[in-house]
Amino acid sequence: MPSFSKQASLALAFLFSANPSLAFFKVPCSTPLVIQRADPIVQPGTASNHVHTIMGGSGFGFTMDYDMTQASQCNSCSAVEDKSNYWVAALYFHAQNGSFIQVPQNGGALIYYEQRPDPTTDGKIVAPPAGFRMVAGTPFSRSDEVTIESSARSFACLNYDAPGTPQTNHFPKTKCPNGIRVQIYFPSCWDGKNLDSPDHKSHVAYPTQTYDNGPCPATHPVRIVSIFYEINWHTEQFDDMWYGDDQPFVFSFGDPTGHGLHADFLNGWDVDVLQEAIDTCDDGGGDIRECGPITMQPDSMTDGCMVEPSIDEKIDGWLDALPGCNPIQPGPEDAKVITGCGAPTTIGDPQHYYTDLTGQNWEWMGCTIDNAGGKRVLSGSMLKDGGMTPDMCTKKCEADGFSIAGLENALECYCGNDVAADSMPKTNPMGNCLMKCSGDAGQNCGGYGFIGLYKKCDGDCKNLQYPVVPH
Ligand SMILES: *[C@@H]1O[C@H](CO)[C@@H](O)[C@H](O)[C@H]1NC(C)=O
Predict the structure, then answer these.
(1) Could you tell me if 279 and 367 lie in one domain?
(2) Does position 57 have pLDDT exceeding 60, yes or no?
(3) What is the pTM of this model?
(4) Which of 318, 319, 320 to mutate to test the pocket of ligand 1 (most atoms within 8 A of CB)?
């Protein structure tokens, strides 16, 4: 993830030059787990009002508790002991003709855990407990007013040739050569009792003098580790499509200002490990690999970790309107909740990333790494075809007398009769097998060095279901 190191070093230069003695560690999160209208904190059990991009443990669902985080089969963030979920609103480009399209995220997110003690206490910083959750910011805000809370959210207009461009509390108004970085800081003072609160905020508070440091208020005396998100967006891909006088990006909740930037944190850490990391990790550069209590997992695991979406609606490609009921509300007065626009409100069946071929007696086995050290998972026969689909591949393997078919690299099909134990699909690297088939862009045909496997099933056909998406 080369982009992370670059973005991180810029962030460090900005954030920590004033006080290099403060320690922190950052958890890199890879491509999102899922992008959909889900928000188990603010709107559990239903489709949420707007689209979020969600990172973290695959236990993520529409209703969440701590046990579900712990049941994650994979994790899009790189610390094994952290099965938390982190989410923010998706970003869209608003075209001149009124259509919208998602702005691609650059990586997933970078989550900073900063050890910033309350200077008026014994200095103890605690890990948030199991079941803890909180929200920072509000989607309704459109106001320029500067408060401690509003200062906790900011935007960086990225230009690697001229770092240090001043940050803003609204979307940058000019083109940013390397995209936009959205930044939000969570409250670090806790009431010490409640894991959540009706508004998901009042059990926590910002320090009294600035959003990211200094003493906690008496109402919220317990200092928790300071959590800060950075999410980069490839807004530069739309540079030649600007029009008019205003910047063309909107958050998924109809906010063209950026003041409604908000973020959600749902704790899924092994709390003892997080506490030990807070107490002992002191790398001045925030390098999580220097943080002994935390175990890292490879990119092939984080990149591949995905949850299947289950709201029956289109959220990507050109859209006539933002998903949900989200007309543009520029403010400066608070935005209103709009309902009744006809957008789906219920949770549907998971939309599978594989092709369901159980009707033809083939079932999905999973996605696994291929050609490691030159060794092929399947070596019976093969076919390369510009019209490849899972159906074409399983038919070929069947005709050749094989019982396992594997798709790779958009257009390759491999056949065989068994898969060695060490090549069997592991937890859930489905995200590594999402290359569009050369014969049908609506289906997936493996990836570079990753093979998507189907197996012949006679009568008793049951696609491998993972991860289980709890409702
Ligand atoms: C709107 O403009 C975009 C960008 O030019 C284009 O791709 C899209 O098809 C247009 N949508 C409609 C409905 O005309």
Answers:
(1) no
(2) yes
(3) 0.89
(4) 318
